[in-house]
Amino acid sequence: MKTTPASAKRLNALRANSLAATVMLVLEFGLGVGVNLYAKIPTADDGKSLLPAFGRAVSGGPIVLTLHALLGTLLLITGVAAVVRASLLRSSELVALASVALVALVVAWQSGARFVGNEANAASMAMAIATGVTILCYAVILFVVAPSATAERTPQ
After folding, report:
1. pTM of the model
2. CA within 20 to 30 Å of 76's CA: 23, 26, 106, 119, which one?
3. Is residue 9 part of a domain?
4. b/e per residue 72-108 (b: at least 16 CB within 10 A)
C-alpha cells in the first residue's frame, strides 16, 4: 500500500484505535475476572434476557460489574470505529481483522449479558475466549501497520 499523507494519518488513527482497544481489553479482562471470582450478582437477575440483564448490570450490580458492563459497551463503539477506519484505508486484510475483532466483541458483550442472567460457566468462558480473539486481532493490526509504514517522509 502506497502511503500518502492522508493514508498515513488514517493508518496512525487505526493504530491508535487498536492500541486503545487492546489496553481497554486488558482492563476489561481483569474486571471480568473480578466479577467472576468476587462479585455477588443479585438473584433478581436470574433468567433475565439480554437487554434487561445489561440494564441490571449497569444500574443494580456491584460496582465492578457496572464498570465491566460500561467498558464492554465502550469497547463496542471502539470496535465499530476500527472497522470504519480500516474501511477508509480500503485494505481488505485490515477490514477483515477489525471485523473479526468487532464480532468477537459482540460475542463477549452478549455472553456477559447472558452471564448476568444465569451465571453460567459457558457464558464466562465465551467472554474470555472472545476477549482473547479480540486482543489477538488488534495486536495483529498493530503489527501489520508497522510504524515505519505510517511515518510521513518529508524532505528536510
Report:
1. 0.84
2. 119
3. yes
4. beebeebbebbbebbeebebeebbebbbbbbbbbebb
Band of pLDDT at residue 46, cut at 50, 70 and 90:
low
Tell me how far the alpha carbon of residue 6 is from its chain's centroid: 26
51, part of any domain: yes
Q: Which long-range contacts (CB under 8 A, 24 or more apart) does 120-127 make?
A: 124/32, 124/36, 127/32
C-alpha to C-alpha distance for 101 and 42, rounded to whole angstroms: 31
* Full residue range of the structural domain in which residue 12 is found: 5-147
> Which H, E and C letters describe 113-147, residue by residue?
HHHHHHCCHHHHHHHHHHHHHHHHHHHHHHHHCCH
Alpha-carbon distance of 102 to 81, in angstroms, equals 10
pLDDT (tens digit, 9 = 90+) per residue, 74-92? 999 999 999 999 999 999 9
152 assigned to some structural domain: no
Coil, strand or helix: which one is 46? coil
Tally the domains of the chain: 1
CA distance 46 to 40: 12
Q: What is the CA radius of gyration of the chain?
A: 18
Q: Which three cell numbers stand for residue 156?
A: 528536510
Confidence band for 36, pLDDT divided at 50, 70 and 90: confident
